[in-house]
Amino acid sequence: MDRNPLSSTTWRAAWYLLCYQLIGWILFAAALTAVTGAAALAVTVAGFPLLIAAAAVLRGCANLERARVRTVLGEPVRGSYRKPAEPGLLIRARTCWTDPATWRDLAYLAGLFVPLIVLGGVVLTVWITCLAGVLLPLWYWAPVEHFAHGLTVHGVQLGYFPNGPSGHGAVGWYVRTLPQALLAAVIFAVGFILASYALTATARIHAGAARTLLRPPQDPLAQAKDLLDRPGPLPALINQNDRGVTAPR
Question: Which of 187, 211, 183 is nearest to 72 (CA)?
Answer without folding.
Answer: 211
